[in-house]
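Technical note accompanying the year-one report. For the benefit of new consortium partners, we illustrate the data format agreed upon in the data management plan: each record pairs a sequence with a structure-token string. No post-processing was applied to the example shown here.
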Amino acid sequence: MTIRAARPRFPALSGLGFRMMVVFGIVLMPLAVLSYVQTRQYQAEAAARAEAAVLGSTMQAANPMIGSILRAQGAVSGLAAALGTLGADQAACQALLSDFLRNPANGDYSFVGYIPRDLQMQCSPQGPRDLSDFPELVEVMDQGEPTVRVNPNGPVSHQSVLIFSHPVSDATGRIVGLVSLSLPHAIIRTKGEEEQGQSRSDALMTFDAEGNLLAASVPLEQAQAHLPVDRSLKALSGSRASSFTAVSTNGAERIYAVVPLASGKLFLLGSWPMTGTDATILQASFPIIAFPALMWLASLLVAQLAAEHQVLRHIRTLRASITSFAAGNRRLPQLDLEGAPHELRSVGRAFERMMESVLHDEAELEDMVHQKEVLLREVHHRVKNNLQLIASIINMQIRKARSPESKGLLKGLQDRVMSLATIHRELYQTTGLTDIRVDELLQSILRQILRMAGNPARPFIVETDLEDIRLTPDQAVPLSLLVTEALTNALKYSSAPPGERPRLRVVLRRRDDCRAEIEIANSLGVSGSRPTLLAGEEAGSGLGEALLRAFAGQLGSSVTREEDSREFRLRFDFLPIALSEAEERLAQNQPEDEPENLPSA
């Protein structure tokens, strides 16, 4: 179908809303550009002033936190010196640390303990602990220097803590242990907020020279969101104080100030929101030129609202109905085009008429398809019944036959007729009548062969591994006949060593080259008692093998055989044909009574 419409010279400019926005935008664009340039200048000046102010305010705001850290470093250093004079006196060590924690001035600390080199901590007010799972503590002792570490989940306080450690040396200068002191982050943050009364949007953080975050005036989870996204903490550890503006990890623009502490081993990072400073400066000198820019934006908004009210909302309603109908929704929607222009209402009415016509045609087609399926099911059902009747007649002839040769021939013919009946039963039981599941077909044939040709006195052990593969009826007929012949021979000539049951295995798999492969294997007894397989219904006839070759040829395949001391395997593969290819082949002018590739008598 071709949609014909008057093509404007410039389709992009044919919309009313777009034209209005372009006209107003061009008229007011110079004022908008001037306003933007001036605003950017004011923002740059405000950022520079804010960075200088933040650099001066960071140390003042961080005084309580810095004081707590420095006191903790001094306390752990003093404890290390005192413990070095006590030697191995556990009682004196326990009394010293207990007196330290009972001191009201040391109430902020959550843990203190002395850790010897064997990592069996016996001296601690919190009780003895086995720290052999932390061999890194020995490395901290061997460094011979005080360290500060952060533990997000302290074993005593069960909260984020700063751990201050200092090696303990005896009178000879040999390091004999380590004294550790824990300071909860919550204590540091609370003191900072009480001192400065700052909001939760501000953050003061300490980190070491390796870029490890040690403490913050906000929870550590929130502190990560205040860090700059384009600079690492290790890159900020310098010898000089500095300030800069950057975007934080949560996407907000903030002002940062870095101040070195503790001889370059400890650093303080202040993170301040840009809004708190920039807004104040802009209030002092509001750019008057911003008014034309606001007018420019307002004109664009008015044009967009006009186009939205008159056209765009009605087009979206119509588009939603068309898209839903094209996606398969066959419920007739109620198009609400109230207030739309006459042209859009005409399009809506035409679409409703088209939907009604399509639904009417689809209903007729579905009824025709249903009638066809019913007729096809009836045809396959009658063919199956007739084939079963033929098989019953053959069975009557088998009972009247006198010679074993005649009974064998009639028995093979009956198996083949029942195989065809199985195909037609699968066809009229399959939904849609378009294809057949090979795994279900093979299961039906296997059950039928075992029921008709099996020996109750010698039951088989049957193993199946069947994948879900679909076939057209054109391929299912020769496949079922081929499998019937192969299973009949496998049951006839299978054997097993004394004391064991014969085995039968049927495998259906899809190979990587998209071909389907079927393998039928039967167990063998002692080598001297095995007859030649695929020798036909009686010795020397060769009919079974000839049928196998003929049916395999109809599938475009050939039968291969493998044999070892335990089993005999018959294998063939074929390419499943799509339903469309099968229909094209059947559409050719081939006489209905032309024989296919069956063996000649």
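Partners are asked to follow this layout when depositing records. The CA atoms of residues 398 and 406 lie 8 Å apart.
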